[in-house]
Amino acid sequence: MGRFLETLPFASKHVELRGVHIPHEKLTAEQATTVMPLPSQIVLPMKQHVGAACEPVVKRREQVEVGQLVGHSDAHLTADIFSPVSGTVRDIRPLRYSDGRSDTAVVIEPDGEQRVCESVQPPTVETFQDLVEALKHSGIVGLGGAGFPAWAKMDTDLSSIDTWLVNGAECEPYLSTDYREMIEHPDTILEGIRACLDLSGVPRSLICIEDNKPKAIELLRELTADDERIDVFELPARYPQGASRVILRNVTGRSVPRGGHLTDVGALLYNVTTMSEIGRYLRTGMPLTKRRLTVMGDAITRPQNLEVFIGTPISEILEYCGCVPGPRKVVIGGPMMGTTQATLDAPIERAHSGLLAFGVNGPVVPRRSACIKCSRCIDNCPMRLSPIDIHKAYLSRDLKRLDELMADLCVECGTCSYVCPSEQPLVQSTMLARTMLRAEQRRAKGRG
Amino acid sequence: MSDMHPGSYATPVEDPLVLRPAPQISCPDTTRTIMRDVLIALAPAAIAATAFFGYRALLLIVTSIALSVACEYLWCRLRGLPNTTGDLSAAVTGLLLAFNVPSTLPIGMLAIGVFVAIIMTKELFGGLGKNFANPAIVGRIFLAVSFPAAMSSYVQPNRILPLPTAYDLLSSATPLSPTAPPTTLAELFFGQHAGVLGETSALALLLGGIYLLARGVIGWQIPASYLGTVALLSLVVGKSPIEQILSGGLMLGAFFMATDYVTSPATKRGKLVFGVGCGLIMCLIRFFGNMNEGVAFSILFMNLLVPYIDRLTANVPVGGEQARSRRRAKGGEAHE
Fold first, then answer.
1. Between the CA atoms of A324, A330, A334 and A338, what dihedral angle is there, to the nearest 10 degrees?
2. Is A385's Cβ below 8 Å from some Cβ in B?
3. Would the CB atoms of A255 and B318 count as touching at under 8 Å?
4. pLDDT tens digits for B84-96?
5. Which of A263-267, A399-403, B328-332 has the lowest mean pLDDT?
6. Secondary structure class of A24 (helix, strand, coil)
7. Chain B partners of A400 at a C-beta cutoff of 8 Å?
């Protein structure tokens, strides 16, 4: 009866975009974070963020220390990369990803001493510009998966910003890393938020959490009770509440116009773990070198929330978590938006929040059949797009129709493909259509 | 994506990891489970039909399903296409077509109806998902136009379950006809009145409709707007809305035929428009026309309008509100 009731107009509760119910399977939610010991090597890709790739600033056989700068770029939009360990640079080699991209990686062999680099000092931050400058040297990027440099997101005209949203929705099934951050480190989260509000002059902040995390909601409500500027906003536990544009609409009722950003409509959005890292960095000056990720899947015998050094190869993490030999599918990220891996050599990057491994019984590859026009993709699209129409227009390369359907507004959440009973490749088509449309828009702009 | 060509690897990999675009998980619903739910939802009405009209009803139901599946199977075989009978949509069409004929219909005529529904309406247009009209509706209308006498020789239903007797097979008009004997509302609701197989028992159809709603297979929009429009217009012309809703094929049409995914609009707003249109056309035919096929024709006509309804009721993407009104203003259609 549930699904029927949800379609009734009066059942929409307090939010506008409800999304779809997906079994959460957050089996590790109540497990405290465990810390993985030093791996045998650290592989640091030079591009773990949106923006320009870094250049290695260390040489082969050079000794490095914890928090030492390893990769840097003079480009405007980038995020420095720091060594998470003390040890020796063994190699600087090319790296290939399973999606075809290639990159350069600095390979470090840890010596186990974990000497901290003397450049690691708490930053002096008195003005907002100090904060932006400090974060440029923190290596902090959007940790929810976006990987957008944290300083760059706030380096804008803040006079029209009235809400600093903090994303603790964690709507991806399986994953529980943001939840653990809220339970284990609410103090650094709030330190980060308060520093940002104090220095930027943004009047209020809302921590947005899905209502399937009552403990986190209660804890943060308690801790922010005496702070008028910070509040907790409850979202329904329906995918994809964590998508930035969905949160924005549900919390403020605003929508980002085509081609625009959240800042155009007076809001900033930071992931809750990113905010916590900002707080931690301001306190200690230690750049981002570790992160928590949820390791799960039916091939994993010891699923857990694991703190790892950035650059730890996934093969070592799988081994540590008791992965059965020869998993059939390995996914970095969550089950809805994660990417499958071609090899187990790939390292964990800053924006990775999950590692899933499935055995023989895990991923059933569904069979595609004819579209029956059930319109579930249309009913469930959080952006109110028409995925099946976009799919058809993409197949016929109809740019005019794609523009009409506004395929470029897709947030890649994958809900359309998830709900499709005939397994049409809806989100893939939409993503390809978006790329095609954006290229065309750029071309048109160049001509005009 | 999963069936990777071995040649796509530079070096052959033994038992490579599966590469697949996101999402990595998928909702358990498939076309087959949806069609299975429709069959389950139609089961109470099938049982009621057998109880009221005897073994001949069951014979027609089973034959119609078997012929429909056989037609689709043969079509796929002859055209060298993958066999699609496993999606159960042909079975649903067969069952719905059987529900649209009287229990006295000769098997040969039923077979013609099945051929029209499956081959002419569905397969010739490209199979499931491509047909512009509901196959069972077209099958019914084809039979009604070709064999008007056989299609309207309704029988009085049994009061109990046994084999039909001479009394039961007496021809009788549908309760909507002016010459029909008066029928009480309770008789209409439980199904003790003459009619085609599937439309007699409103109770059985309602049970199935509620099942489909609860399972999320259909939305409330089409049944509610269809039945609501009929109720309203009945009041306007001074007829009993409850009698109008319970009689004829309206319940069957509103819950099971107008809601056919392929031939109904995509958005919720579109579905409301569609239901209102069905209600309007059906009332016009029932109140001012002289045919028994009001429901079937109303759905068929609205099927033809679906592409236009879809265009006019498309959702506005979040963030696309301004772009859309700008374009409209430019096209001179509307101003913000």
1. 180
2. yes
3. yes
4. 999 999 999 999 9
5. B328-332
6. coil
7. none
Dig out the tokens for A265 from the structure. Answer: 């409509």
Instruction: Give the CATH fold of the B31-311 domain.
Output: Ammonium transporter fold (1.10.3430)
Report how far residue B263's alpha carbon sits from residue B87's, in angstroms, rounded to the nearest whole number: 17
Q: Which residue has the higher pLDDT, B328 or B80?
A: B80
Interface contacts (A, B; CB < 8 Å): 168
Which burial class, exposed, middle or buried, applies to A245 when counting CB atoms under 10 A from its CB (0-12, 13-18, 19+)?
Answer: buried
Residues A400 and A441: their CA atoms lie apart, in Å, by 11
Q: Which DSSP symbol is given to A10?
A: G
pLDDT level of residue B18 (50, 70, 90 thresholds): confident
Q: In the structure encoding, which two tokens stand for residue A367, read together? A: 């069979």
Say which range, A89-98, A369-378, B16-25, B325-334, has the weakest mean pLDDT: B325-334
Contact B24 A384 (CB under 8 A): no
Taking an 8 Å cut-off on Cβ atoms, the answer to whether A245 and B318 are in contact is yes
As to burial, measured by CB atoms within 10 angstroms (0-12 exposed, 13-18 middle, 19+ buried), residue B326 is exposed
| Closest residue, chain B, to A264 (C-alpha) | B319
Fold of A18-112+125-288: Rossmann fold (3.40.50)
Q: Which residue has the tokens 């079937």?
A: B296
The minimal CB distance from A342 to the residues B19, B127, B129 is found for B19
Asked if B328 has any chain A CB less than 8 Å from its own CB, the reply is no
Looking at A274-288, B14-28, B53-67, which range is the least confident one?
A: B14-28
CA–CA separation, A223 and A47 (whole Å): 37
pLDDT, one tens digit per residue, over B91-145 is 999 999 999 999 999 999 999 999 999 999 999 999 999 999 999 999 999 999 9
Residues B158-162, mean pLDDT to the nearest whole number: 49
Looking at the predicted structure, is the pLDDT value of residue B5 above 60? Answer: no
Provide the residue count of chain A.
Answer: 448
Residue A447 has pLDDT above 50, yes or no: yes
- Which among A6, A19, A27, A5 is positioned nearest to A418, based on CA atoms? A19
Task: Select the residue of B23, B216, B262 nearest A414 (Cβ to Cβ).
Answer: B23
> What DSSP assignment string belongs to B52-94?
HH-HHHHHHHHHHHHHHHHHHHHHHHHHTPPP-GGG-HHHHHH
The confidence score (pLDDT) of residue A296 equals 94
Taking CB atoms and an 8 Å cutoff, what residues of chain A touch B318?
A: 17, 245-246, 249, 255, 382-384, 409
Query: What are the chain B neighbours of A98 within 8 Å (beta carbons)?
Result: 19
Q: How far apart are CA B103 and CA B82, in angstroms?
A: 34
Q: Count other Cβ atoms within 10 Å, centred on residue B132.
A: 14
The one-letter code for the residue type at A358 is: F
Lowest-confidence segment of A123-132, A254-263, A287-296 by average pLDDT = A254-263
Which two structure tokens, joined as six digits, stand for B45?
């009405």
Report the C-alpha gap between B299 and A203 in whole angstroms: 56
CB atoms within 10 A of CB B145: 11
**Which pLDDT band, with edges at 50, 70 and 90, does A12 fall under?**
very low
Please answer yes or no on whether A7 and B317 come within 8 Å at the CB atom.
no
- For residue A364, what pLDDT band results from cuts at 50, 70 and 90? low
Distance CA A31, CA A179 (A): 10
- Residue B249's CB is within 10 A of a number of other CB atoms, namely 27
Percent of chain B with pLDDT over 90: 61
Q: Where are the domains of chain B?
A: 31-311
What is the percentage of chain A residues whose pLDDT exceeds 90? 73
Cβ of A409 within 8 Å of Cβ of B27? The answer is no
**Token couple for B285:** 């035919």
Phi-psi region of A394 (alpha: psi -120 to 50; beta: other; left: phi over 0): alpha
